[in-house]
Every structure is written in C-alpha cells, then in structure tokens.
Design a protein that fits this description.
six-stranded antiparallel sheet, 464 residues, alpha/beta, globular, 12 helices, nine-stranded mixed sheet, 2 domains, Aminopeptidase i, Domain 2, binds manganese (II) ion, Aminopeptidase, 28% helix
C-alpha cells in the first residue's frame, strides 16, 4: 500500500528537506544578492534604474539604438523611468509567439500630497496619500525614508533619497499613547488610523525673528532650498514616496527566510531579471516586463493597461523586418506568459482565511495560481488546463518544486495581478510567483527556498 500511495499521491513536501549543503549555499548566496538589490531599489524608479544598470552590464542595449535586430540580440526599453521591457531575440520568428514573464516593481507606500508641507503647534509635517492597499496602522511609529524626484519648472530633475544611510535622519508618523487611546482602541482596526492622520513628522526648529508666522515650516523650506535648491512650489511637480527605512534581512535562527519591504512584487521582478541575464539564444523570443502601477489597478502610461507594451513589441517586429498589418495580434495569440506576482502564503496564525488544501506554503516552491478571483471567480483570468499542463511539464522536466494554489477561501479571497491584461490580448497566461506572509505590510516575509525556485522557474521557461 505504501508503494501505491507513493505512486498516486501528490508530494507536498517542504523544499528544505534533503537539500545538501552546496545547494543550500547556492540558495543563500542568491538571496544575499536579492537583499542587497532590494536595499537599493525600494521604489519603482530605483528598481528600474538598478535594472538598467544590471542589463547594461550584461550586454543589453537600448532598443532605440538598433535599426535592425537579429536572433541573439539583447534589448530593452525604459518607459518614463518607471517601467521597463527587456527582450532576448529568439531563433524562431516572433510570429510563433513570445515567452513573456511579467512582474511589477511598484509597492504599497505613502506618497506626498501635492501641497504637503504645513506647520502645527511647533511641528512641521508632510501630508501623505497612501498608495495601494495598506493597513494604515502598520505605517505609524516606524522609521520612514523619503525617495523620489522633484522636477523644477525648467525641467531640472532632483533625485531625493534620505533616511537610508546610517548618518541620515529618518522620519516617522506618530500614534496616540495607550493611556489616552481609549476611544481609538474601541474603533474598528480599519478606522483606528484615518488616512488624513498619516502626516509625517519632519521638523521642530523655528527660524529666528519676530512677527513671522510658520517659523518651523520656513526653516524646513530653507533647509530644502539649501539642500536641493527648491521652493515650496517645486513640490507641485514632485513624486516623493515614503517607504520603510528598514534594511532587508535574513529572518530566523536558521536564516531560512527574508524579511523586507516591497517584496510584492520586487521578488518576482528581481528573480525574472536575473533569469533574463542568464538567457542565451532562446528558441522563442524571451520578454521580461517590469511594470508599474499594479498596486493601484495597472492604469496610466507606466501601468500594464497602457499601450506602451504593444508599442515595444511592434518595434521588435519592425526592427526584425517582419511587421505587417495585424501581426501584433497574431504574436500575442501565439504567446505564453508567466504573470509573476506574489501569492498569499498560508499563515498558521491566521489559518481561518485559507483552505489548507489549496493554500500556498512557504518553502514548498513556486506557486501557480490558476485563477485569482474570489467568490464566483469574478474578474479572474482562469488559465486553460492545456497551458497549466505545459507549465507543469516544464517544471517537472527541470525538477523544480511547485504548488497549485488559491488566494484564500472561496468567499474571502481574491486579488488582481496583470495576468488578465495579457490574457485579454490572447496570450496564454498563468500567475506564477512566490508565497509571502504579511503582504503589503512594511515588512513582508518569504522563504529563501521559494525565491531560488522562482529564479529557476523563470530561467527554465525562457529556455524551453
Ligand atoms: Mn503584486
Ligand atoms: Mn500587491
């Protein structure tokens, strides 16, 4: 009977079991690279800047510099410094379809409002507007850093990054002391901290002088003027983002996990970028999408809903000398895609929200999510069985550990990715990413085993 069970049952074991030391070291080394990268890429702009640097070092070139492209060429296109598409041109005609992996590089955070700066009772503050789905209470009383750009009316662009170096100051949002929080503690968790209360504390020294109002605000503006050459109006044309000032760290006595901000979805962006750097002469053209704005619905000209990606693929077809009317549609209809985004990992402390037979588990390998919609699968891109079989075959051929999962219980779960956008163009798509705990929190938790399996999955997909 043991033999029969061995033959028929699905094997849902943890990847760490029966791993030899050299394999474990390989995983840990790869994850050290990942954590270093994360520390220099906390925002979408920083991620794209680093990704471009990595691509340049690996012989990729801006597509704009090519009049013609040939099999084996490595190209990229950067869209407004916030999203990026890379490709390694395949041996087969693009007419036979592309192999696409798409992730996103934006993460939940707090953005500054257009008129952020004010003074109240001796304190200066920046007003914020949160970006993406956050639990607001998690963003108070933690160290925050400010990242982004200020663009002056004359076009001069100033890059801001303050709060990351040990010698930098940090910023924080205060919360009420428990002694006086009787009313607050009675509120529902979602109302405990109001959106309008997420104001960042940025200073408290007033300028000298009588008959001047808002002396602390003036002092802050003076510091900003000396440091960045700006006035208050220059903040109109800025994109300044507050992110946790924590560093990415190994987690646990056994160091088996990574705790870091923004792993949704920089974990899949990094692993697919690294996989793309390791691709030589693929059969089908390999395309890597690093998109923006996924956390707020993929809208806008740097989001996946934009026509920028169609433009990129059209340019590939133009520069290959094969383009003709409607070819773009055909290319999409023959393409395959892994929508690489994180999955909700099963958390035993909050077990009641998951179906334990269909949850994604940390340490059990890459998670394939056939569909994401909750209740009646509303709004889901549901991958075809034929395509799931193709992906399984690819994973099994390469001895990659994988699990088929759902995002929460039927009546509870649900979450969007960019999968449906490409599926609507005719591409065969499945969500395929890393399970994660504390999604969208300032510190998110993943398993190093799964991170490395994601890297291996993406390499195998492009090499198939
Ligand atoms: Mn995501
Ligand atoms: Mn997300």
């Amino acid at each position: 009977m043991e033999e029969l069970k061995e033959k028929l049952f699905s094997k849902k074991t943890v990847g760490w079991e029966s791993l030899d030391d050299s394999k474990k070291n390989e995983i840990f080394d790869f994850c050290n690279g990942y954590m270093n990268f994360l520390n220099n890429a906390k925002t979408e702009r920083e991620f794209i800047k680093q990704a471009r640097k990595v691509a340049d070092e690996h012989g990729f070139k801006d597509l704009i510099n090519f009049s013609q492209i040939h099999p084996g060429d490595k190209v990229y296109f950067v869209n407004r410094d916030k999203s990026m598409y890379l490709a390694v041109i395949g041996q087969e005609s693009m007419e036979n379809g592309l192999h696409i992996i798409g992730s996103h590089v934006d993460s939940p955070r707090l953005d500054l409002k257009p008129n952020p700066l004010y003074e109240d009772t001796g304190f200066a503050y920046f007003k914020t507007h949160y970006y993406g789905g956050i639990k607001k209470y998690q963003w108070t009383t933690i160290p925050l850093s400010i990242h982004g750009v200020i663009v002056k009316a004359n076009g001069e662009k100033i890059e801001v990054n303050i709060g990351e170096k040990d010698t930098d100051p940090i910023f924080t949002i205060t919360d009420l002391l428990p002694h006086l929080a009787v009313d607050q503690m009675e509120k529902k968790l979602k109302n405990g901290i109001e959106g309008e209360a997420l104001n960042l504390l940025i200073g408290s020294i007033p300028v000298d002088g009588d008959n001047i109002s808002e002396k602390v605000k003036l002092n802050i503006l003076n510091i900003l003027n000396q440091r960045y050459g700006i006035t208050e109006d220059d903040l109109f044309s800025s994109e300044l983002e507050l992110v946790p000032a924590f560093k990415a760290r190994s987690l646990g006595f056994d160091e088996s996990m990574v705790a870091a901000y923004g792993q949704d979805d920089k974990i899949c962006a990094y692993t697919s970028l690294m996989a793309m750097m390791n691709i030589e002469n693929p059969k089908n053209t390999a395309v890597c999408i690093l998109s923006d704005k996924e956390e707020i619905g993929s809208m806008g000209n740097t989001g996946m809903e934009s026509h920028m990606f169609d433009f990129f693929v059209s340019e590939l077809l133009n520069k290959s000398g094969i383009n003709r009317p409607n070819l773009l549609d055909k290319v999409f209809c023959f393409s395959k895609m892994l929508s690489s985004d994180v999955d909700a990992g099963y958390d035993p402390i909050y077990a009641s929200v998951s179906d334990r037979y269909n949850a994604g588990y940390l340490g059990k390998g890459i998670a394939l999510v056939k569909y994401t919609g909750a209740r009646g699968k509303s709004g889901a891109s549901d991958a075809n069985a034929e395509f799931v079989a193709w992906v399984r075959n690819m994973l099994e051929e390469n001895e990659i550990k994988y699990q088929l999962t759902e995002l929460g219980k039927v009546d509870i779960g649900g979450g969007g990715t960019i999968a449906y956008i490409l599926a609507n163009k005719g591409v065969d798509v499945i969500d395929c990413g890393v399970p994660l705990l504390s999604m969208h929190a300032p510190y998110e938790v993943t398993s190093k085993f799964d991170i490395y399996e994601a890297f291996r999955t993406y390499k195998a997909f492009w090499n198939k």
